[in-house]
Amino acid sequence: MSQTTSAMTQIICAFCKGTGKDPFDLLSELAVCQVCGGRGKVEVKEPAIKCAFCKGTGVYHDTRVTCTVCNGKGMVTAPKGETTLCPECNGTGAAMDSGMPCLKCKGKGVISK
Ligand SMILES: [Zn+2]
Ligand SMILES: [Zn+2]
Ligand SMILES: [Zn+2]
Fold it and tell me: 34: left (phi > 0), else alpha (psi -120 to 50), else beta?
């Protein structure tokens, strides 16, 4: 790793809430969290904002799979520059009709101005 990674911020893994274990015991009780690899922490590129689609939980709504927007981290990198609430999904990150991640903001809930 080079020194140029300073724009990364370390956060608690949302998917396992920092335990490092698979929160749903899908494979076995001892399975490590697939998001953080058991470290309990993940890195997100700055500026990081809470993932709108999963509301920072890292979980894809009512399923047991990782959020496809933040990859289970619970945080995503905000769009460059000034941002504004996504008019398509009203900042929820989810498309009104399908419930899938909003195409306009890619599930982040905000877009570049
Ligand atoms: Zn984890
Ligand atoms: Zn998410
Ligand atoms: Zn949107």
Answer: alpha
